[in-house]
Amino acid sequence: MDTTTAETFVADYLRALEVADLRAVLALFDDSAVVHSPLYGDVAAREFYPRLFADTSSSRLALRTVLRGEDAGAPVIAFWFDFDWTLLDGTLAPFTVVDVARLNREGKIAELHIVYDTAPIRSLFDAATERSGD
Question: What residues does each domain of the chain span?
C-alpha cells in the first residue's frame, strides 16, 4: 500500500470512528477481524465497535502521523492520533494512541492492535461503564 492510499485509508477509518459510523468502520475490516484493545480485550471487530460506540457520548480525533510496513509479508499501517473521548455519562477520557492494522490480501484490516497507556483513564472508564450497567 503506497503512502497516499495508506493516508486515505486511515482518514476514512478515523472519520468513521469519530462519528460512530458502524457500517463505514466495519467495511474496512475483514469479516473475521480481531481487535486487541487495552480496555476491552481481544474482541471480534463486529463486536468491539458496537461496544465502543455504546460507551461513547462523543469523540474528536486528530491524526499525528501514518507509518507503513510489513509483517510476514502482510501490509501493516500504524497511525498515531489523539483521541478526545467523552464517555457516555459525559466523563472526559482523552488519550494518545497508536493503532497498528495488519491488512489482508484484499486490503482490509485482519487484525488491529490498539496501543496506549490506560493508567490515566482506566478508573474513569471503569466507573462510567459500571454506572451505565455495562
Answer: 3-131
Cα distances from 77 to residues 7, 61, 94, 126, 130, in angstroms, run 9, 17, 23, 30, 34
3-131, what's its fold?
Nuclear Transport Factor 2; Chain: A, (3.10.450)
Weakly modelled stretches of the chain, pLDDT under 50:
none
In the chain, the DSSP E strands lie at: 29-37, 41-44, 56-71, 74-87, 95-103, 109-115
Cα torsion 42, 46, 49, 54 to 10°: value is: -110
pTM of the model: 0.88
In three-state secondary structure terms, 35 is strand
Residue type, 41: G
